[in-house]
Design a protein that fits this description.
Length: 428
């Protein structure tokens, strides 16, 4: 409800009713007339609205500046400035969504796509990240090791390969073309796009992407088989590739498997939708926020289905904060990365509040006509002048002997820009 509609309601109230409102607001009445009472009541509302607007401007500027600074030699859109100072595919993807939503720094997205296209594995797998050869010593001691600026295709913890990298590459390419109309660039990476598509054809099973431990973004949750996040991206990338092939002749299906979108969508819904939300895995009845939210934005879930998952989340989350948790309920101990538990990091995805899934969730809420739940987050960002990776219940950065929350986290910046920008997913 805006101040104009509130003003109309106030005008229809009696003087006594207005006086009672002033008393509740702890504003002295002192025999003021009706118009003066209305002005006093509306003033705090207008001040609050101004504060929200100012906070949003500060946060958007900070997000764009942080993203622009997160780069180093030959690499663009680094994940962060400390622990994750490499170009991670999934981090670059989420970051790019925010840049598309504001049509800013698209040269960085182009560079990411160019580097990824150049570094596809022989079989067509898009790298998990490009940067340091090993992340173990970086993660444990903050010390990088091995060669730099090299493509890495497997997770350091379990040698598992990512299932979300290839769909993200295709979606990024489509959204870049949609925003820029740069057909010559898409033509220049068309061979890589077809190779990427063929990899998905060769590795998918029954229209689902199959993975091993730590193959998706929640890489401290250990389970095999299809996961929600990667398969949501897969469904949407099928549609994006169809659109690219229509617009750019070089990106065609000659010699490449052509997925039937309806069959992929039906297989996905059958495997993951339980009537209330999309499960993190066909075999694990847990709601995962990012995957469900993206499904709403991609049009995979209807408005009614989206509201069902949001109702479930809000009714069942344990945290009092506005920030949506990663999952509801928490993942059980049997699905947690046990070495993480040894050093006290069992709650990395289970207990910490992550900014980027919440911002994706916020955008999904807006799409179905609900409030964004961004105000508390914006106040925290303004307070700290930093986009952290994840925060505690009070929205403060987390300090931990083995892993503090990452600072200047590009994924948080990009998702926030997506949440406060235009809708880029209409008519993919």
């Amino acid at each position: 409800m805006n101040t104009k509609s509130i003003n109309k309601k106030l005008e229809n109230m009696t003087g006594t009713q207005l006086k009672n409102i002033l008393e509740k607001l702890e504003i002295e009445y002192s025999g003021r007339n009706k118009s003066e009472m209305i002005r006093l009541i509306l003033h705090p509302l207008k001040s609050h609205k101004t504060e929200i607007k100012e906070n949003r401007k500060i946060c958007q500027d900070l997000a764009l500046n942080t993203i622009a600074k997160n780069r180093r030699k030959n690499l663009r859109l680094l994940a962060g400035t400390s622990l994750y100072s490499d170009m991670w595919t999934r981090d670059a993807f989420i970051t790019s969504l925010g840049l598309f939503a504001h049509c800013k720094h698209l040269d960085l997205v182009r560079q990411v796509l160019k580097v990824q296209a150049k570094n596809l594995r022989k079989d067509g797998l898009v790298p998990l990240r490009i940067g340091r050869e090993s992340y173990t010593t970086q993660w444990l001691f903050g010390i990088p090791s091995g060669k730099d600026n090299v493509p890495v295709y497997k997770d350091d913890k379990a040698d598992s390969e990512p299932t979300d990298s290839n769909p993200q590459f295709i979606i990024m390419a489509w959204l870049y073309f949609k925003c820029t109309g740069d057909i010559s660039f898409i033509q220049s990476i068309s061979k890589s796009l077809k190779k990427c598509q063929k990899y998905l054809c060769d590795t998918s099973k029954d229209y689902l992407l199959q993975g091993e431990y730590f193959h998706s973004w929640y890489d401290t949750f250990a389970f095999n088989g299809p996961d929600l996040f990667s398969n949501v991206l897969f469904v949407y990338c099928v549609k994006c590739y169809q659109k690219l092939s229509e617009k750019v002749p070089e990106v065609n299906y000659d010699g490449v498997c052509k997925f039937d979108y309806k069959k992929v969508l039906n297989a996905f819904k059958k495997a993951f939708w339980n009537g209330r939300y999309l499960k993190i895995s066909p075999d694990i009845n847990v709601m995962e926020t990012a995957g469900n939210s993206l499904a709403v934005l991609f049009g995979i879930l209807s408005k009614e289905e989206g509201k069902k998952f949001m109702t479930y989340l809000e009714r069942n989350k344990s945290k009092k904060s506005q920030i949506a948790p990663v999952t509801v309920p928490k993942m059980s101990a049997m699905h947690l990365y046990w070495p993480g538990a040894v050093v006290g990091l069992q709650g990395y995805h289970n207990d910490r509040l992550w900014i980027w899934p919440h911002c994706i969730y916020s955008k999904a809420r807006q799409k179905v006509g609900l409030d964004s739940k961004l105000e508390d987050l914006e106040k925290s960002i303004v307070k700290h002048r930093n986009f952290y990776e994840n925060v505690d219940d009070e929205l403060n950065p987390i300090k931990h002997p083995f892993q503090n929350t990452e600072e200047n986290f590009s994924e948080s910046c990009g998702s926030y820009l997506l949440a406060t920008g235009r809708n880029i997913f209409i008519n993919p």
